[in-house]
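User: Please fill in residues for this 297-position structure.
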């Protein structure tokens, strides 16, 4: 492998890892608060992508306005899912909420197939947002710079909210002890719905960025990215926002480097993520930055 090829793979790995990290943060925030793997989180990527797609092509909105409206609509949808599908099951066994999450995921996927069709659609790339950058023998899209920057800015914003604001203090209290926090006058419903709003907004940004990076959308587009971002969250330490960031970058870099160093194994690229998940669960179930917590029976 030449130096140019290695640097090219580094650029691709950072871009892919940033996408994984951005989406994994939403997974880990929801789990950190209510101990629920929100499988519908992956399908919010699809919803945001289609909302942006139709905003640009059908309603002829400027791309930035279409993206903002898509993020807003996806955030509202995420908050609505929490209120309708999860809140009534908050005191039920956790398996009930998990089944509900899987059901919402299948609902969004099949509703998408019914409403927009199963055929993939090309996602428009704004020329003033996506262009080629050439540095010596390396060539990459501007997204390889834009996506990591957006991810770092959003991670900093999430950390600021969690560590420096009243709602962030409430989030940390609820994540530590749900019942005690509710007895200490913490508005648990407000904390949970805020968490879903932030997570859904991050999923929307991730979905739009994913569609720009891989400009083809379909109702099942969130399935594999969602699974891999869940793996990234577990890898970094489910419940840890910095852990999700680290896990996303490592998983994205590992996938790209696997293909770069061993091109004959490129067909096993998706399997690589699941092998990583098995190894993490076997040898460090708490993740890289997470804590090993024994569930209370």
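Assistant: Residues filled in for all 297 positions:
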């Amino acid at each position: 492998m030449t130096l140019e090829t290695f640097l090219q793979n580094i650029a691709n790995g950072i871009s892919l890892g940033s996408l994984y990290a951005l989406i994994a943060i939403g997974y880990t925030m929801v789990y950190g608060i209510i101990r629920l793997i929100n499988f519908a989180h992956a399908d919010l990527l699809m919803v945001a992508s289609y909302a942006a797609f139709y905003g640009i092509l059908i309603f002829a909105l400027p791309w930035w306005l279409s993206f903002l409206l898509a993020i807003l609509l996806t955030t509202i949808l995420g908050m609505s899912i929490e209120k309708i599908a999860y809140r009534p099951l908050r005191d039920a066994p956790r398996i009930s909420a998990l089944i509900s999450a899987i059901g919402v995921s299948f609902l969004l996927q099949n509703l998408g197939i019914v409403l927009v069709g199963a055929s993939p659609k090309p996602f428009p790339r704004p020329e003033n947002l996506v262009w080629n950058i050439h540095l010596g023998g390396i060539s990459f899209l501007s997204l390889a710079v834009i996506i990591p920057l957006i991810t770092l800015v959003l991670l900093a914003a999430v950390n600021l909210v969690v560590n420096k604001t009243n709602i962030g203090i409430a989030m940390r209290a609820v994540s530590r002890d749900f019942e005690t926090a509710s007895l200490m006058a913490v508005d648990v419903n407000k904390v949970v719905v805020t968490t879903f709003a932030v997570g859904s907004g991050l999923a929307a940004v991730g979905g739009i960025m994913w569609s720009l990076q891989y400009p083809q959308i379909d109702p099942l587009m969130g399935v594999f990215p969602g699974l891999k971002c869940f793996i990234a969250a577990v890898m970094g330490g489910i419940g840890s926002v910095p852990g999700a960031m680290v896990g996303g970058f490592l998983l994205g870099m590992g996938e790209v480097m696997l293909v770069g160093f061993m091109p004959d194994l490129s067909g096993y690229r998706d399997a690589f993520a699941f092998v990583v998940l098995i190894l993490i669960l076997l040898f460090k179930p708490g993740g890289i930055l997470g804590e090993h917590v024994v569930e209370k029976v």
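For context: The longest strand covers residues 132-135.
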